[in-house]
Amino acid sequence: MKQITTxxxxxxxxxxMMVVAGVIFSxxxxxxxxxxxxxxxxxxxxxxxCDTGLCFDPTTAMFPTGVFIQQSQNFDSQIMNQNSESxxxxxxxxxxxxxxxxxDSSAILYSVKDSFVREGLQTSNEGSNxxxxxxxxxxxxxxxxxxxxxxxxxxxxxxRSLESAKLKIFVVDNDGKWQxxxxxxxxxxxxxxxxxxxxxxxxxxxxxTQKGVTWDCSSKDNDCTNWDGGSFMATVTDSVVISNEMSGxxxxxxxxxxxEAYLNGAPNYxxxxxxxxxxxxxxxxxxARETQTNTPQLELIFx
Length: 303
Known about the structure:
Order of helices and strands: HHHHEEEEEHEEEEHEEE
Structural class: alpha+beta
Strand content: 15-25%
Distance between the termini: 104 Å
Largest sheet: 7 strands, antiparallel
Helix content: 10-25%
Number of domains: 2
């Protein structure tokens, strides 16, 4: 009888130890997934995950969203109200460059880099986002950037005469706040920029390893002195009026003069797309090259 009692007592001790260990493990796990998460994974861990083609999206998994707000970034109530964003789950952060389509009379080139910059999160890179956001809301403006390959332009126009050039973008959705209609303008960029691998502010930007374009800088490897939301020509290349009904449709800008300038020796850094009145409300999302459908296009027409 005494032996059975001893075994029973030992069993209760083992069970108690397992319960305590479980509580401790649960507490450690909760800490790792909340305030302690940022210090648990090293900078290389974050970078390795993004470099292998995956970036984390907090809204589709059981992690506290606040953990993934970018370090050293003001995130007040105004920003929180403005950032009603659509996210996607784990996905590839880069796609291969599409070849161009060539006929006797025209050619279609596809963007080789695109992103958008955010005044509300000035050190956030969006190079892997599947949309390019153009938005005007005062202190939280968004501007889109699109670039094409110089060698493709040169190949297409070799021994051909340019008649016209159009930048075509696809409006995925519209927030319906454009009143009677507002102008969206494009300007030629005057500084080179790097696309980057960030998306929707968290994770890829969390430890500051990305080098892609932000509101503050064209690239972490470049001098950021003259960037501040983009370094671009004062002259507007072209403009398009956006109404509330502009959704699920293509729009196009005449960029003939910019391509002619490139053919005459000017550098080609692509274009920035922004609202003419950035203090007025209104947002559109443009399909980025990561969607692999409705990719931004440069159409070149030959004489």
